[in-house]
Amino acid sequence: MGIAEAVAELRPVLGERLSTSLSDLALHGQNESWYPPMPPDAVAYPESTEEVAAIVRICAAQGCPLIGWGAGTSLEGHALARYGGISVDFSRMNRMLAINPEDMDCTVQPGITREDLNTELRATGLFFPVDPGANATLGGMASTRASGTTAVRYGTMRDNVIGLEVVLADGRVIHTGTRARKSAAGYDLTALFVGAEGTLGLITALTLRLYGQPEAIAAGICAFEDVASAVDTVIQTIQMGVPMARIELVDADTVRAFNGHAGAEMPEKPHLLVEFHGTEAGVAEQAEMFGALAAENGASGYRSATKPEERSRLWKMRHNAYYAILSLRPGTKGLTTDLCVPISRLAEAIEETRADIAASPLMGPIVGHVGDGNFHCALLVEPGNEAELKIAKELSHRMAERALRLGGTVTGEHGIGMGKTAYMEAEHGAGWDVMGAVKRALDPGNLMNPGKLLRGN
Ligand SMILES: Cc1cc2nc3c(=O)[nH]c(=O)nc-3n(C[C@H](O)[C@H](O)[C@H](O)COP(=O)(O)OP(=O)(O)OC[C@H]3O[C@@H](n4cnc5c(N)ncnc54)[C@H](O)[C@@H]3O)c2cc1C
User: Fold this and answer.
1) Rounded distance, CA 89 to CA 74, Å?
2) Cβ(369)–Cβ(151) under 8 Å?
3) Which of 84, 143, 182, 395 is the most buried (most CB within 10 A)?
């Protein structure tokens, strides 16, 4: 591979926006999870689609790997430079390109973060709902097909990206989708690139679906005696068709972490955190229906949060759950798992997982976007402790097998990256080979984020 040659050729094109400083390489070689550092050989900071295409053409001619970089918050080592190469950091491509309030859509560059996007949209009365908690970029979120607390109401990135601009591995620029809300024109290329983890091309613009800011929002939190009662409440709420905007489970260990980290003063029991969107009357009705179901399942201490500052305190605490959990055992890293099952199998999946973790020496608090049948546990592992890492991987392996046995998926939202390729065959069968054929057709030199998602990649 001509990595050094590619770096030399890129320098006059990008000038100071091609960095080989050790701190930049280290920053783009680390991750939020347990994977060891894998730095790139250089970091490119393009400012336009044309520059991205130029970078790709040079790297293609030299056989140099290219790894897209958004905010680096992905959890399966997705953005690490496994075989070296150029990390393409999109932080300078972070502009809003167009807002179309009448059509409720907008077009953005990939490096805009979810929080900045919603700040830009605030005055329009519209918002973009997909919320993975971390302040990720829209390019990274599309590439991992992210979702989060609001997916139960608004769907995932799959449902909310309506078009893309992509630079392919040979430097061609394509546009997928239109601004129309539906189309029957051929293969759905937008869906192909959403969730491709940067293995098929680099996204340089996204057209997104927007929603009207709800007239009324109410949030709330209540405690349950056990996880099963909380999960039963979730299942009944979803089955009754209450249009929850968020319904999140945190177990007693996570609550203990909140109390220590955020001074939450909550009873150390499993809790559900909920949010309702709609008209004043609609929100009141939804809250009442949820409250009745929760009470039937023995919930106590329901507290509502209607003021914006109370709600933002509640969701900030939830979004920081990972860091609160890490503080239960300072110095550890989390091996974060992510299974998603049909809602009818959720209680079983959580109970089996809890029993498995309880029988192990590791700590693994559970949190979940349970309205989607999705939950995570962060298995706390001391860096460098191979024995603990082995136990964590075995627990994670059994969770993946459990998800498949119960008719679910090994990842509801975090993606495959380097960590979950071992399950692709079991989940997709020959479909995984089809993904490989698509990859070979679009990127025969295997330059786009090699070592991720695919067989032998
Ligand atoms: C505390 C915490 C909580 C989280 N909670 C959730 C959650 O609730 N739901 C959820 O879905 N995820 C969650 N995540 C994971 C993470 O936030 C998501 O995976 C997010 O979508 C990653 O976006 P990013 O901008 O950080 O992308 P990165 O990590 O930088 O990149 C992710 C992948 O996308 C590729 N990529 C980035 N930009 C481009 C581009 N322009 N073109 C092509 N490929 C590109 C990268 O090569 C990589 O493969 C959480 C992470 C943390 C740390």
Assistant:
1) 14
2) yes
3) 143
The tens digit of pLDDT for each residue in 364-416 reads 999 999 999 999 999 999 999 999 999 999 999 999 999 999 999 999 999 99
Task: Judge: domain 3-91, CATH 3.30.43.10.
Answer: yes
Is the CB of 451 inside a 6 Å radius of any atom of ligand 1? no
Q: Tell me which fold the domain 94-212 belongs to.
A: 3.30.465
pLDDT of residue 1: 67
Q: Which of 144, 320, 374 to mutate to test the pocket of ligand 1 (most atoms within 8 A of CB)?
A: 144
The highest-level CATH class for domain 215-328 is alpha beta
With a cut of 70, say whether residue 111 has pLDDT above it. Answer: yes
- Cα(337)–Cα(105) distance, integer angstroms: 33
Q: What are the residue ranges spanned by the domains of the chain? A: 3-91, 94-212, 215-328, 329-444
* Distance (Å, whole) CA 389 – CA 361: 11
Average pLDDT over residues 42-69: 98
* Average pLDDT score, the chain: 96
> What pLDDT does 305 receive?
86
Class of domain 329-444: alpha beta
Domain 215-328 identical in fold to domain 329-444: yes
Q: What is the pTM of this model?
A: 0.96
